Structure formats: C-alpha cells, structure tokens
Amino acid sequence: MYQLLLGDFIFVSRPPRFFYIRSRLHGKVMDINKGKEKEGGGIIVYKQNDHPSDNQLWYEDRRGIIRSKLKNFCLEAGQFQIVVSTDLNYIVELGISGIN
Question: What angle do CA 29, 99, 45 make, to 5 degrees?
Fold first, then answer.
C-alpha cells in the first residue's frame, strides 16, 4: 500500500483482494487453462486446487473490470466462449464468491 499527497487530497492505493469465481451448479471454479495462458486463451471450469493458484484467482481493478491474478488478463465474451484478453471489449456479469 502507498499514499500520494496531491494538494489537499491523499490518494491511497490498496492491494487487490483476490477471489474465486465459483459455479453454483457444481462448485467448480473458473480457471485459465494451463498451456493456453496467453491472450485469447481459454477459460475452463475446473475443481478448485488445494492451494491458491494464480490461474484460478481473480480481482476487480480500479475501473470495476474483473481480471485474473495470472498476467492481469480480463474476461472477454465471444459468441460461444469466454476467453482472456489484455483489453476489454465485453464485460461478463458473473456470480463470485470471496476468499481471504
């Protein structure tokens, strides 16, 4: 965390809070498919790993965009799939569950 003083204002940066995006249907989580960890790579639904891993953790950035802990990718919705991207064209509304 850092603070920046600018005139009469103090800007405080906070580290992001990471969370899983979990399916209510079967309890599996959104996961960036290993081996496809690049822009346009695939998102899969997979069992939650025993230990937190960057390809399953997500956060909300300062603009309200959901991004992955792995390479700060954002979600992009295509016609038949959800992929990761470095730029946002579409925002997907998803139910999320937090972790500490």
Answer: 5
Q: Where are the beta strands (DSSP E) in 21-96?
A: 29-32, 43-46, 58-60, 66-68, 74-77, 82-85
SS3 73: coil
Q: pLDDT tens for residues 36-58? A: 777 777 788 899 999 999 999 99
Q: What is the pTM of this model?
A: 0.66
Name the average pLDDT for the chain: 74
CATH topology of domain 16-98: Trefoil (Acidic Fibroblast Growth Factor, subunit A) (2.80.10)
